[in-house]
Write a structure and sequence with these properties.
Strand content: 15-25%
Number of strands: 11
Order of helices and strands: HHHEEHEHEHEEHEHEHEHEEH
Number of helices: 11
Largest sheet: 7 strands, mixed
Mean pLDDT: 85
Radius of gyration: 32 Å
Structural class: alpha/beta
Amino acid sequence: MNIQPYKSFLTVVQCKSFTLAAKALNFSQPTISNHIANLEETYGVTLFAREGKNVYLTEAGSTFVPIAEKLVASFEAGLEEMRALQEEGDSLRIAVSTQFINLYLMHILNKVKERFPDLEIIVDRCMTIPDTIEATFSARKYDFAFVHIDTQPMYTKRIHLWEQKLVWIVGQKLYEEYGASKDIYAYPLIGYGSFTEYYPFLRNVVDLDRFATKFCFNDSESIIEAVRQNYGIAVVPSIKIQHYKAYGDIVELPESYAVTLPVNVLYDLEMNMTPPKKLFLELLAANKDC
């Protein structure tokens, strides 16, 4: 909808002159005349009576004044509301269910920041997938939720991004003590405080009940460190051990024990899609399966 003809009409009403209205709006007089003519054609009425240089409202014109005022006010209110939403978009709030997702997001978030330098970017680790979903879609604390299971609450959009490989690792010294055994069940297990999120995937490949668990931790950093200190073996995202493998103090066990996790991003279908959020999704799409 082009609101300018309505503004031109109200300005002519206020100035009682096409010439003065054109000056007030920084338009040419023919432009103002065209605006009024378009309104008169649209509504099928004559809005002004002209006597020489004098301009008078017709009966239809007088009736149209509050209509035009209401339309202009509604348009301006809509602009203000949209601007307010745009200001709310000056942040990008992300919840992740596991820390390895952060490693994939860093270069994407950096590109978003380059385009929008004043954008506040927040990435929080939630302890579990249910916590991640609750915080994003019930508490509304986040714009996007990254999870590694195929879950999707109602009224959300889910985009599959990539498959994350989980691998079994053992410290070099322990590996040598056990005669370089490739049998994962020969080693004590360094587990997580809860295997809840990994269990469905692991059980298709290994028998978790066969392990003798030595320690349990709730974060992969502690688990990797326990492996490096040769306390046992563990399953971790492959992306998190590349640095340690380069030092030669961690051995990756056979590929046949590896499993993959789907990584998905979820967001509300009715979310205000600001330019930073739109760019973020575009960059994610461009980097799928990387």
